[in-house]
Design a protein that fits this description.
The complex is a heterodimer of chains A (about 575) and B (about 350).
Chain A: H1 12-40, E1 41-42, E2 45-46, H2 48-56, H3 58-91, H4 97-105, H5 112-123, H6 129-138, H7 150-161, H8 163-175, H9 178-186, H10 191-219, H11 223-229, H12 237-247, H13 252-282, H14 304-330, H15 347-355, H16 357-390, H17 396-408, H18 411-421, H19 434-458, H20 462-470, H21 475-504, H22 507-512, H23 520-529, H24 533-563
Chain B: E1 4-13, E2 16-26, E3 31-35, H1 42-50, E4 57-62, E5 65-69, E6 74-75, E7 83-86, H2 98-108, H3 113-126, H4 142-154, E8 160-164, H5 172-189, E9 192-197, H6 200-206, E10 209-213, E11 219-223, H7 225-230, H8 235-240, E12 245-251, E13 257-258, E14 275-280, E15 285-288, E16 294-303, E17 307-314, E18 317-324, H9 325-331, E19 340-345, E20 349-352
Parallel strand pairs in B: 3-9, 3-10, 7-8, 8-9
Antiparallel strand pairs in B: 1-2, 1-4, 4-5, 5-6, 10-11, 12-13, 12-14, 14-20, 15-19, 16-17, 16-19, 17-18
The chains are: A mainly alpha (about 575), B alpha+beta (about 350).
Chain lengths: ~575, ~350
């Protein structure tokens, strides 16, 4: 009789579980908890009075109001624009609809702080090219538009955020059963009535969920407000956190205010997430089936061409114009010169690409940090998803909660938490190194990785692994031979979902950068703050090239993969 | 090649106990079928033998080896049990070719390349998959995938083959074909098969011995297929083995047995209870135009091609019977609805009316 191995002891399962819990606790739980701790505890004691005092400072509540005000404005404007364009490209006979649809998604690719930079160059009250042209050449008395205002900030954010609503509503409109509208038409309803009574109510959940996503994003958005708001003294919560941390060089009071602000931001974000979940769970109409129908097209008739011109003008104004401006300004010998041949040069680009160590480092840092964050988060995500999806263990609900938490925790909050946790408090000090940014990215993007990998793992039936076990494979072997190859597409998806945003990211890195650890975003931002507008623009141009190239390569690569 | 012995197996999930004190022996080299309604715990039993689950109590032996002993905390991993398993959903690995799927157990066993190739191709031949070795599973039909799963389970010549409803996703023709193939392979290889299904037809056709399990996970009867069909231990087994008719029969005060309408019933149970159920299958009924037997009425007549299917009413009770169409024509037994007829019986199984558990179909 052969002796069978006893079933107790520490096996691969326990190791995986332990590692998963460890990673999430260290990377996600500690930073978030330390923020709450700092916000409510003073000298080891719970102290709500001080918290309220920090909240009552005029700076603080003004920033909160600003955040809410800007986010509301952006949400309303984006929702109207996004819904309108979505309707135009799905339900009308607008010419070139497929091309238009792709073009309306381009703003997703452009980092909004680079857009803000471009608009500053075009519409700042005194130096903006459009304002100057109208004053100097046309002879207007004052600037036609001042970008350093709430309206300016909201307009710029809207340009780059409306695709959130656009994409959701496009999907809903396409999946909606057209017979619902047809039967209304047969009953004698006019097109206007049908749209108001049938179509809009049916796509309302999609509109709302897109709108709340924009609200969440805008509340926590740093770049645009930082670039356009500082001049006019407009702060929102993330920019105020940045200001407090940077100007007071880490004094206790400013950190405390920072954590209180962060707490307010987290609570607001959680509230928005909660409402969104409600909307989504309530709004799943059966009527919007998974099938793809060919919807009825509204004839635009006389408006067909004007609408096309309007769309092209919108794209030209919000995408082409700012992009061209960035590249043109980046080529100027000195900021403020007119765009003539003798004023334009490639020297700036050559200088920041090859000669200036700071910018070269920034590009290198961005690419390596993006790669490292994507790789680590991808692998950790596979492991944690495996525990959540496949293992029957207690406490995996906690794992899921921790992994998804960063979805509702804004970037500036994670950055602040990581800063507090890993600046020596627990004996580890990685402040001012690239590692602290890396740790923050892992926390920030873990949710993306978990989503992609869980989806892939759910496709891998347990019996596939059991078949391998019965064939003679140990657990590790079965994971290697069966599970890993099958979740690889999910892993690739996770990688790209992380690499691209990490590459261009500003909100987190701007709070965590040290003298040698600037990323492209931070470099562009600091150059702009220092008045080096031309170099800032040139670097922004290069960043755009890198982003577009990466996006295109990835698009081609993933398409090639899904074909086989 | 291996005997499987289960001793006092108990398995619970949370509060619900699926198996209690179940003991069972599968003899070396036999094809043993565990037949039961869905959700009765038969798959759990298979998974316990495979080692995918651990019993809460009891001992499992495969061959001479104890692979699982709850009291001694012994549990061999599935890969240490020398098994082949075929799953209900086939579990063919979608990222490997047919060849790689089948070769996998041999690769793990580190079989040399030429020997591996030869053995895989031999197995491919056994399951009639020749020419499809380089296909991906997505290019195969359900039946072909099922053969890949079977080949993969057989290729390493395990001493025990476990099959979990492997045919229930196939269409009727393919199911019949595959069931002969499995039986054929088992005969040629002399392998022990443990087969789990809810399909009595397959179980009867394929098994050397079979066990009937009820919803509570209790084994009602173990025996050869003909034994179980002809001598069901109780009403549950009788019902489970195909279409079952029941007539309630009472003891007449003066002696003899009558139906609800007072007609004399031609068979006699041995026992002294007063109320009995007479169980019989459609094939046990002999219909006639007139003459001896119970006087009945045809309630519904359906022409099924080779067979005529009748629903017969007798004194308020109903039963089903079938007769071959050409026999019916020859004997003048093509009844129409509400025609009168008589019925006698080839054989009747008697069950005490009181002992029938409610809810056991």
């Amino acid at each position: 009789m052969r002796a069978a191995t006893p079933s107790r002891g520490i096996g691969a399962a326990e190791v995986i579980l332990g590692l998963s819990v460890g990673i999430l606790v260290v990377v996600v739980a500690v930073p978030v908890l330390i923020i709450f701790f700092n916000a409510f505890w003073v000298n080891g004691q719970f102290n709500l009075a001080d918290t309220l005092k920090a909240l009552r400072e005029p700076d603080t509540y003004r920033a909160l109001l600003n955040s809410l005000f800007i986010a509301s404005g952006v949400t309303v404007m984006s929702t109207i624009i996004g819904t309108f364009f979505a309707w135009l490209v799905t339900r009308t006979d607008l010419p070139f609809k497929p091309a238009m649809r792709v073009l309306f998604l381009v703003p997703f690719m452009l980092p909004s702080f680079i857009g803000a930079l471009a608009w500053k160059m075009l519409l700042s009250p005194r130096a903006g090219y459009i304002n100057r042209f109208l004053m100097d050449v046309v002879g207007l008395d004052g600037p036609v538009f001042d970008i350093y205002t709430f309206t300016g900030i909201m307009a710029v954010e809207t340009m780059y955020l409306f695709p959130f609503v656009f994409i959701q509503v496009c999907g809903a409109l396409e999946r909606m059963d057209p017979t619902l509208e047809e039967s209304a038409r047969i009953s004698g309803a006019s097109l206007f009535t049908i749209t108001r009574k049938i179509t809009i109510p049916l796509v309302r959940p999609s509109i709302l969920s897109g709108a709340l996503l924009i609200m969440l994003y805008s509340m926590a958005h740093f770049g645009t407000v930082a670039v356009l708001g500082i001049e006019a003294g407009i702060f929102n919560i993330p920019t105020l956190i940045y200001e407090k941390i940077h100007q007071s060089a880490g004094s206790f009071n400013s950190i405390r205010t920072g954590t209180v602000l962060a707490t307010v931001l987290v609570i607001t974000a959680a509230l928005i997430m909660f409402i969104q979940n409600k909307v989504l769970s309530r709004g799943r109409y059966q009527i919007i089936a998974g099938k793809s129908f060919r919807p009825v097209e509204t004839k635009l008739r006389a408006l067909r061409m004007p609408m096309l011109v309007f769309c092209i003008a919108y794209i030209g104004f919000t995408i082409v114009l700012p992009t061209v401006t960035i590249f043109m300004v980046g080529g100027l010998k000195t900021y403020g010169l007119p765009f003539t041949a003798e004023n334009l040069t490639l020297a700036n680009y050559r200088y920041i690409l090859f000669d200036w160590k700071m910018t070269r480092d920034a590009i290198w840092n961005s690419v390596t940090l993006g790669l490292a964050a994507a790789l680590i988060t991808m692998f950790a995500g596979v492991m944690i998803s495996y525990v959540i999806v496949k293992m029957k263990v207690r406490g995996k609900g906690l794992l899921e909660f921790l992994g998804m938490l960063p979805f509702s925790v804004p970037g500036s909050v994670i950055a602040l938490g990581v800063m507090l946790a890993w600046s020596g408090k627990f004996g580890i000090n990685i402040y001012n190194t690239v590692w602290i940014i890396l740790v923050a990215y892992i926390a920030r993007y873990m949710a993306f990785s978990l989503k992609a990998n869980s989806a892939a793992l759910e496709q891998v039936h347990d019996s596939l692994v059991e078949a391998a076990r019965a064939s003679g494979a140990g657990m590790g072997q079965a994971l290697r031979d069966i599970v890993l190859p099958l979740v690889r597409p999910g892993m690739f998806a996770a990688f790209f979902l992380i690499f691209l945003p990490a590459l261009r990211e500003l909100t987190v890195s701007v709070l965590l950068y040290g003298p040698t650890t600037r990323k492209i975003g931070v470099a562009i931002y600091t150059l702009n703050e220092d008045g080096e507008t031309v170099y800032s623009a040139a670097l922004a141009g290069i960043a755009l090239l890198i982003i577009v190239t990466a996006q295109t390569l990835i698009g081609r690569f993933t398409r090639a993969r899904t074909m086989t | 090649m291996a005997r499987v012995e289960l001793q006092k197996i108990r398995k619970s999930y949370g509060d619900s106990t699926v198996l209690r004190d179940l003991s069972l022996t599968v003899n070396d080299g036999e094809c043993f079928t565990l037949l039961g309604p869905s959700g009765c715990g038969k798959t759990v039993l298979l998974r316990l033998i495979a080692g995918f689950e651990k019993p809460d109590a009891g001992v499992i032996r495969i061959g001479e080896r104890v692979v699982s002993d709850a009291a001694a905390s012994v549990s061999a991993a599935p890969n240490e049990r020398d098994l082949g398993v075929v799953f209900q959903d086939y579990a063919v690995w979608p990222h490997m070719t047919v060849f790689d799927n089948i070769a996998y157990p041999l690769k793990l066993a580190k079989v040399a390349d030429t020997a591996l190739r030869a053995r895989v191709m031999e197995t491919v031949g056994q399951v009639n998959l020749r020419g499809l070795e380089d296909r991906m599973p997505s290019q195969l039909s359900g039946g072909q995938q099922q053969r890949v799963a079977l080949a993969r389970a057989l290729v390493a010549k395990p001493s025990l083959l476990l099959l979990d409803e492997p045919l229930c996703n196939l269409d009727a023709g393919l199911r019949e074909e595959m069931r002969f193939e499995i039986k054929e392979i088992q005969k040629n290889l002399g392998i022990t098969i443990f087969y789990v299904t809810h399909d009595q037809e397959i179980a009867l056709a394929i098994s050397d011995r079979m066990a009937i399990m009820d919803e509570q996970g209790i084994i009602r009867q173990i025996g050869a297929p003909d034994e179980i069909f002809e001598q069901p231990a109780d009403e549950f087994v009788f019902r489970f083995m195909g279409v079952a008719n029941f007539l309630t029969v009472h003891r007449q005060p003066g002696g003899g047995w009558v139906t609800g309408g007072g007609q004399r019933f031609p068979w006699e149970p041995d026992g002294d209870a007063s109320a009995w159920l007479a169980g019989f299958r459609p094939s046990d009924v002999r219909l006639g135009r007139n003459g001896e037997g119970l006087r009945c009425r045809v309630k519904r007549a359906s022409f099924l091609g080779a067979m005529m299917d009748y629903l017969i009413e007798v004194d308020g009770a109903q039963f089903r019977t079938q007769i071959e169409t050409h026999a019916a024509l020859a004997q003048g037994l093509m009844f129409g609805e509400s025609d009168a007829c008589t019925a006698t019986f080839h054989s009747v199984h008697w069950f005490k009316a009181g002992e029938i558990p409610e809810g056991s179909r």
